[in-house]
Amino acid sequence: MDIAGFVTGAGGIAHRQRVLDAGASAAAIRSAVASGAVRRVRRYWVATTAASPDLCAAAEATGRLACVSAARHRGWWMPPDAPGGLHLHVGRGSRSPRGEVTAHWRAPLVPVSAFDLVESVVDTLRHVADCLPRETALVLWESAVRTHRIPLGELTRVRWHSATAAELCAIATGSSGSGIETIFVHRLRPWGLEIRQQVPLAGHDVDTLIGERLVVQLDGFAFHSSSAERTRDLAHDRALMALGYRVLRFSYTEVVYNWPAVEAAIARALAQQLHLQH
């Protein structure tokens, strides 16, 4: 059996028992370690050079990736200014992880296999709710719902044991196409406006539609990887205007770092009733 190949296929790190269950012998594992094909991580894990440093750190601490570390591992959209550092869930009675690690000690809401180094999606949602600023946490919740296609009704039936998680569950929609869209809609929610997201108009979805006629397009942090995309967006804006829609476009930097200017632009449009059908 190609032990290094098996471990690489398992994500670069695997529990020793999984390797044994796949058909390797204990002697073969020892030989692979001795040859440098894999290395031991604590007593029960073996890893290759392809292993994620975060997963190895979780194994070293006898813990699991949690909170923002689990979110990053799963590919949820993460604001560039989101907190860094390693977050681990460790069991009660375990030693505190070494180094600059944020430890989460609460009993998990959902059990996971002893062979897993990442906590459940539900536990990650609870941890980010309790650990991060509310707006940043909502961005991660929306990304999780969209990434994993989680039915909202399923989340409402979870007993969160966290007031913040319950609040986020109540306002999450799964409609946001990006993190910047979540931030924009969240900041406008107190205005009491009718806001729809990802509405198909003129052949493409628009990010947000306020009222009946005011389209707001939001350019993400990594906006436009090619001039062709920019040309397509401008053509879509023109098509919308030809149909009688008013289009406002804001960048990630404007929404996140210059929100008063965005608010002022929206207020001026509303004052002119550009969101209404005439």
User: Could you estimate the helical fraction of the residues in percent?
Assistant: 40-55%
| Count of the domains | 3
State the low-pLDDT regions, or none: none
What is the overall shape?
elongated
Estimated radius of gyration:
23 Å
What attributes characterize this protein structure?
Endonuclease, Chain A; four-stranded mixed beta sheet; 13 helices; elongated; DUF559
Describe the structure.
Helices cover 45% and strands 17% of the residues. With 278 residues, the chain is of the alpha+beta class. The chain has three domains: 3-51, no CATH class; 61-171, no CATH class; 179-271, 3-Layer(aba) Sandwich (Endonuclease, Chain A), CATH 3.40.960. Strand 2 and strand 3 form a beta hairpin. Helix 5 (67-74) crosses helix 6 and helix 6 packs antiparallel against helix 7 (134-148). The chain starts with a helix and ends in a 7-residue tail after the last helix.
Topology of this protein?
Layout: H1 3-9, E1 13-15, H2 16-21, H3 26-35, E2 39-41, E3 45-47, H4 53-60, E4 63-65, H5 67-74, E5 86-90, E6 101-104, H6 121-131, H7 134-148, H8 152-156, H9 163-171, H10 179-188, E7 195-201, E8 204-210, E9 214-219, H11 227-242, E10 246-251, H12 252-257, H13 259-271
Parallel strand pairs: 5-6, 9-10
Antiparallel strand pairs: 1-3, 2-3, 4-5, 7-8, 8-9
Pfam family, one: DUF559
Domain DUF559: 191-270
InterPro entries: DUF559, Restrct_endonuc-II-like
